[in-house]
Amino acid sequence: MIAAEPLLAVGIMEGRQEIAGAFTGPYRDGGGVEREGSFRCRHTGSAWEFTCGDAVTVVGGADLRFTPSTPSSVVRLDDVTIGINFHWERNEPQIFRGGLHVLWVPGQGITAINEVSLEEYLKSVISSEMSATAPAGLLQAHAITSRSWLVAMLERRSHGVSPPPGLRVGPDATEVIRWYTREDHATFDVCADDHCQRYHGVTKIISAAADEAVEATRGVFLVHDNEVCDARFYKACGGRTEDFASAWEDREIPYLRSVMDAEAVRPPVTTESDMAAWLAHPPDAFCNTNDPEILRQVLPSFDQETTDFYRWTVTYPAAELDALVARRSGLKLGRIRALEPVHRGPSGRLTALRIVGTEQTVIVGKELEIRRWLSPSHLYSSAFIVTTTMGADGTPRAFRLSGAGWGHGVGLCQIGAAVMATRGIPPEKIVLHYFPHAAIQRLY
Are 319 and 333 spatial neighbours (Cβ–Cβ below 8 Å)? Predict the structure, then answer.
């Protein structure tokens, strides 16, 4: 297992024709020249054109590197996209400590990478994923979780372990079972958006609480069977967490198994009658809270634009759903006649859904692919039941999706962990609740 703090390459932007920003404090380029102030760089296909102040420099090669000359030096990058493909997607300037690596990828464009130490990276992640005013126990629990996931991924790469294929297609495209890995970045270790972990650098001031939470847990990891745990997290489980295999490849991971988000134990939610009762009579779970103070602490401002995370409803007129599924799936299903559950995981999340169309019927999975097909961005979760309103002609007029939770449901439930922390439950107990069979160990 890891024995020293690593330096990370964090992908901030990809596929750009040009990037712009500013160095606040001096940065040294690859030739040892110090740069400061506003800059802009583009690639002509054969060389870089780098403009800083009034000076224009033409440089050959595939990449540019800039290293801070002082501990207080920071770099601002303009027009950074956050919340990619989610309902809160937007562009904003962001500020980063550490180095800047600008890479030209032929046929794709410019990639901007921030090079930063793991513990400094985590201080931003904790502030970016949630409010830094959250309880100290939550911040520490999240630091342990985020650190563990990232290092587990780095260690798999160092051992040459590639993510398994993420797509199975049945005969004549009658079944599309797809899952997405978090390790498909070729030019950097981890991206800065929700695909990996939210990382906004020091755009927001990193609070003393976030700094203290990371320092208090420096080098602390979840471990199992002499390996760092591949710890996962999301916003709200909806009452019960989910098995790893419901979201990713078909294998069991002992510490990524479904648990109740409560002290009381209830059976898994796997049948349609179970799911209907689960939604109609929500259990007393940690993440079942409407406390505005807790939500402000755990949800950044753009996440608070949607607060119906524990139980939610989305309704589509039939014609709207027909067009949406055709666009998102790329398949010609015709008019949709029914959405039929095929299989649920123990949290009630669908892992396979049959979509019956007038021209074609297809089974789609796993949970994220279902959410992508049934929303312009991402459906809150795949833990839902369908109520169909029929017209006088016997064809559907509308489909109502009534669901639970926000996210894939595997691992740490952020809102549930926040409630646990406000009740005085220590961070070690919080993470071990969500990651059964794991242990806590300081590795550096």
Answer: no
User: Could you give the CA distance from residue 328 to residue 31 in angstroms, rounded to a whole number?
Assistant: 47
CA 11 from centroid of its chain's CA atoms = 14
Q: Which whole number is the average pLDDT over 17-34?
A: 96
Query: 58 Cβ partners below 8 Å, 6+ apart?
Result: 47, 48, 49, 50
Distance CA(185)–CA(230), nearest Å, equals: 17
Q: DSSP for 17-38, please give it.
A: SEEEEEEEEEEE-TTS-EEEEE
| Beta partners for residue 11, in sequence order | 113, 191
Phi, psi angles (nearest 5°) of residue 418? -65, -45
Banded pLDDT at 165 (limits 50, 70, 90): low
User: What integer is the mean pLDDT of 90-106?
Assistant: 95
Decide if pLDDT at 300 tops 60: no
Burial 314-336 (b: 16+ CB within 10 A, else e): eebebeebbebbbebbebebeeb
Radius of gyration of the chain (CA): 23
Predicted confidence band of residue 437 (pLDDT cuts 50, 70, 90) = very high
Strand order in the sheet with 227-228: 227-228, 220-224, 439-442
Residues sharing a CB contact under 8 Å with residue 244, sequence separation 6 or more, in sequence order: 232, 251, 252, 253, 256, 257, 410
Backbone φ and ψ for 333, nearest 5 degrees, come out as -95, -15
- Say if CB 308 and CB 205 are below 8 A apart: no
- pTM, to two decimals: 0.89
CB 390 within 8 A of CB 397: yes
Task: Indicate the SS3 state at residue 232.
Answer: coil
pLDDT for res 182: 65
Distances (CA, A) of 94 to 13, 81, 200: 11, 10, 6
Phi, psi (degrees; rounded to nearest 5) at 169:
-120, 125
pLDDT of residue 93 exceeding 80, the answer is yes
Question: For residue 23, which of 59, 60, 58, 64 has the smallest C-alpha distance?
Answer: 64
Confidence tier at 163 by pLDDT (50, 70, 90): low
Contact 412, 141 (CB under 8 A): yes
Residue among 109, 106, 96 at smallest CA distance from 66: 96
Reported as type and span, the H/E element at residue 60 is none
Both structure tokens of 34: 């110090």
SS3 of residue 14 by DSSP: strand
Structure tokens at 117: 């130490």
Per the CB < 8 A criterion, the answer to whether 181 and 251 are in contact is: no
